[in-house]
Amino acid sequence: MGEIIKNYLNSKGIKFNTLANALGYEDSIITTMLNGKRKISTDEYYIICQTLGLKPNYFYEIANRDGK
After folding, report:
1. Are 49 and 55 in contact (CB under 8 A)?
2. Count of other CB atoms within 10 angstroms of residue 15
3. Which end of the chain is less enclosed by CB atoms within 10 A, N or C?
4. Half-sphere exposure (CA, 13 Å, Cβ side) for 13?
5. What local confidence, expressed as pLDDT, does residue 28 receive?
6. Host domain of residue 28
7. How many domains does the chain have?
8. How many CA atoms lie within 13 A of 62 on its CB side?
9. Rounded to the nearest 5°, which phi and psi values hold at 46?
């Protein structure tokens, strides 16, 4: 899921620190999440979607479509 979110951020020109600020985390924690080295909790996922103005199922639909 982290890779899908990372690709979205990159395609929209959104900096990782936008999510870091929303979650109250250091940039390095966001980087590990988006690189798949740390799982994204349900609460974190919801805040990410809310911050980006997306419905919670947005990234899941992409993952299912792409078979990830």
Report:
1. yes
2. 12
3. C
4. 0
5. 95
6. 2-66
7. 1
8. 13
9. -60, -45
